[in-house]
Design goal:
There is one protein chain. The chain has about 240 residues and is α/β, with parallel strands linked by helices. The chain has a domain at about 5-120 and about 190-220: Rossmann fold. Helices cover about 50% and strands about 15% of the residues. It is built from nine helices and seven strands. It has helices at about 15-25, 35-45, 45-55, 65-75, 90-105, 120-130, 165-185, 200-220, 235, and strands spanning about 5-10, 30, 80-85, 110-115, 130, 160, 195. The strands form two sheets. It has a five-stranded parallel β-sheet with strand order 2-3-1-4-7. It has a two-stranded antiparallel ribbon with strand order 5-6. Helix 6 (about 120-130) crosses helix 7. The longest helix has 22 residues, at about 165-185.
Length: about 240
């Protein structure tokens, strides 16, 4: 059965880091909206050209275009045995479209993981977060940079993001709560929905997340009918 995982979580919860780590451990493609938008715009497909034109105007890509691009990506051969989706869905209409895509794929259930962290911890984490001024990568707890504050990937200087000050962070968290609460309500009653305590070390979060995903996958497996004992010839002759 394919392992199809959606990672949810507010800014600072470590969602991207955990998605990347889990995908690497399970040898699944990590699919983020940022990556597929960039790939689509380079590919010059009709959807890619529409997304590129929108982004060049500084606007958000509309639901219909985003859904189409995600659908194209999830139907590619490398995703048919499973995937880790980061950054999609963001709206109820996108969630419903993803359900339709999963039906079209016929490749196992969707496991939704919500990484929950108290607001005070999120504010602290975002204030301490660093990104690479060269390649733009976030500092990854699973790939710790050296004490000189240099990016291990490219050697660039690590700096604070301009939108990681406390006032901006608090506003981003309010927006996330407002926009994401309907999604949590949409998924929460499903047997494959799991909540992960993100207020732990990254290693502990990864362990808990993996265990919960495995439990959801096991619960989603179709139950096989018990095999009836075979009757021997003497029993058959008496019927």
């Amino acid at each position: 059965m394919a392992l199809n995982v959606v990672m949810m979580g507010p800014p600072g919860a470590g969602k991207g880091t955990q998605a990347e780590h889990f995908a690497r451990e399970r040898k699944l493609p990590k699919i983020s909206t940022g990556d597929i938008l960039r790939d689509a715009s380079k590919a010059e497909t009709p959807l890619g050209r529409a997304a590129k034109a929108t982004m060049e105007q500084g606007k958000l890509v509309d639901d219909a275009t985003m859904i189409g691009i995600v659908r194209e990506r999830l139907l590619q051969p490398d995703a048919m045995q499973g995937f880790v989706l980061d950054g999609f869905p963001r709206t109820i209409s996108q969630a419903r479209a993803l359900d339709a895509i999963m039906t079209e794929r016929d490749g196992g259930p969707l496991i939704v993981v919500d990484i929950v962290v108290p607001e005070r911890d999120l504010v602290r984490r975002l204030a301490e977060r660093r990104i690479c001024s060269g390649c733009g990568a976030n500092v990854d707890p699973f790939d710790v940079s050296d004490p000189a504050q240099r990016c291990r990937r490219c050697g660039g200087q690590l700096v604070q993001r301009s939108d990681d000050n406390e006032d901006v962070v608090l506003n981003r968290l309010k927006v996330y709560e407002r926009d994401t609460r309907p999604l949590v309500d949409y998924y929460k009653d499903r047997p494959t929905f799991r909540i992960v305590n993100g207020a732990q070390t990254p290693e502990r979060v990864a362990q808990e997340l993996a265990a919960l995903v495995d439990s959801a996958a096991a619960e989603a497996e179709p139950r096989r009918a018990p095999r009836l004992p075979r009757m021997d010839n003497r029993m058959e002759s008496q019927l």
